């Protein structure tokens, strides 16, 4: 399995002329997976050899602005570059609880209508992931509100046995999230490649003893 990493931004707190806010792309078999999307990420993509249209999954570590403020704009740019297609697979977005509300409200308030589907899979944090005074429970934010066009997606809880969150699994790899301690609930992501059976000519080996 071929994996290629491209750092689009490694700056902290705010971008600079020579250093973008946090963003990293993993290229895997023609797809691009984006990790964090700070301000200016789409500009950095244009300067790179990557194609933004290849982004199929987005992973957000936490809800500080230097990791998410570029996301609504990037989604709008991707929409401008696409055409309506009912068969288009949704862009999967993973991140902490509250991310769905942030995206939905940002796009609604800016009258932005995306031409492609997207899903938001939210990770429910535990209270020990940040200082007690900084913890905010976003689970009731949209309860009772009508969100007729809100994005679908799963709400993922910690698996105590694995001490992680299972995000996705296919024939080649498993992707999990694990808890990090920060000023706000934060997550890291692990991509684990599955064992691959070798390709041996058993009959030939037997013939050779």
From TrEMBL:
Signal peptide positions (record): none
Cofactor(s) needed for function: Zn(2+)
Pfam families named in the record: Anti-Pycsar_Apyc1
Single GO MF descriptor: metal ion binding
Zinc as UniProt keyword: yes
GO cellular component, one term: nucleus
Entry keywords, A to Z: Endonuclease, Hydrolase, Metal-binding, Nuclease, tRNA processing, Zinc
Subunit structure: Homodimer.
Listed name of the protein: RNZ1 protein
UniProt organism field: Elachura formosa
